[in-house]
Amino acid sequence: MERTPKDAGITRREFLKWSAVAGSGIAMGAAGVSAILGLSQAPGKVSEAAGAGQIPMYGEHQAGIVTPQQTYMYLASFQITAADRPAVIGLFRDWTRFSDLSTRGGTMQSGDNKLLPPSDTGETLDLPASRLTVTFGFGPAFFSQDGKDRFGLAAQAPRYLKDIPRMPRENLDKTLSGGDVCIQVCAEDQQVAFHAVRNFIRLSTGLASLKWLQEGFISGGTAGQTPRNLFGFKDGTANQLHQTPEGYQDVVWAGEGEPSWMAGGTYLAYRKIRMLLEVWDRTPLSDQEDTFGRNKTSGAAYGAKHEFDPVDLGQLPANAHVTLAKQSGKLIHRRAYSYTGGIDPRTGHMDAGLLFISYQRNPDEQFLPMLKLMQSQDKLNEYVSHVASAMFACPRGLREGEYLGQVLFEA
Ligand SMILES: C=CC1=C(C)c2cc3[nH]c(cc4nc(cc5[nH]c(cc1n2)c(C)c5CCC(=O)O)C(CCC(=O)O)=C4C)c(C)c3C=C
Ligand SMILES: [Fe+2]
Questions:
Q1: Transmembrane ranges (predicted)?
Q2: Does the C-beta of 359 come closer than 6 Å to ligand 1?
């Protein structure tokens, strides 16, 4: 199946039209321009199966938030280095164009000019869309940094957006925390996800620098089953408490008291949490189960039979993770991924854990009270260490023809 130029890539003429609207062609540095010329070349080949497993990028909400979790995830955080607003808009237009292309299973043209680097890095040329989703978020410093309104957006800052306050037990690495813009990329095929994140980085040349990049996975398991984390426990069970359109409205989608561009958006809370596998693996099963208040094999709460049976807090230890999560009285939508990162050279222990990600409409009411309570009392603290942290505001979903952030820049 061959695609039309419009389907599979953007033409040079289209690029010039876009640049003229944004003024980005003039404002961008040489590196940025050449990277984008790559994106703007005529279409390349698209694999027969490119259309398989597509998740629409356009809609009321961004994809990748309440989308059933794909197997692989990259979370990238960027610092914007672009000098001014038109340059940022140029970058966001190019990221949008590339998201549209890659979520539809398309690639940029490899190019036949042997004197130039190929436009597309090529590793997905024969691969389908693989349920690729791209989710964007803006960090607090994007709106104002050290009191400076960098891009004229300070008045549009989301109501609850701030860095996660210091917590009693954390051991954060600042170089792995925060950032101006995050991109969460998820797919069923790791190479498809990597291709997307790699090309977002390429397109940002001269306009943004990559601050940190994390990669995660969940167990495939039998379809429909809750994945298990690296402690061997089912992780995500309680999400079923709000998995309806009304539930998502209550738990995930922001709007009330927010700038208009956040209506239908949400807040992404991120913690990189190292799990001390060697300690855990020497811990008796009864202590492991007391840590969560759930049976390890079935996932049932203490006193219950099945995974999804209601939780009776009277049956759980007071310091169990689930007890504390429930005590806050609020729900959050969790979308965590496991990570492994080789060996810690200082200790010889495995570097592995959880890239905790949750989405909520009001982090002040939902996520932060829960985190505070857990950091001070959770039995889980004996076995984990929080090493990185960030919060981002994710705008509502894009309409066709809009670029990322347009609704914010034009608010
Ligand atoms: C601040 C929020 C949370 C952090 C940080 C967090 C870290 C974390 N969680 C697990 C494993 C499990 N968590 C489970 C339940 C659960 N966790 C949170 C919140 C945070 N977890 C909530 C809101 C809930 C749901 C509680 C409920 O209403 O029942 C479970 C039990 C099964 C489930 O519902 O998912 C496990 C297991 C780890 C390993 C971890 C940090 C490394
Ligand atoms: Fe948890």
A1: 20-39
A2: no
